Amino acid sequence: MLIIKHPSENNNSIGRLVYNDTLEHIARNRPNALICEYVDDRSLLKLLNENEFSVVVATKDISYQTSVMLKGMDLIQIILGQKDELAETADIIVDPLYRRSEQFLVGPKYLTPPLLKKYGAEAIAGILKMDAGLLQKEVDSNQAEDKLLEVIDLYKKLEWDSDFFGVNIGYVSCLRLTPSIERRVKDYIRKEKIDMLEYLCNCHDKKSVLTAEKNGYSFVDIRLTFEQTLGECSETTLPSGFSVRKANKSDIGKLRRIASSIYKLSRYYYDANFDEAKVTEFYSNWVEKAVLGTFDDYAYVLCDGNEPVGFCSIKEQRENAASIGLFGMSFDYAGKGLAAGLLQVVLNRLKRDRIDYVEVVTQGRNYGAQRLYQRLGFITKSTELWYHKWFH
Question: I need a surface site. Which of 146, 173, 186, 340 has the fewest CB within 10 A?
Answer without folding.
Answer: 146
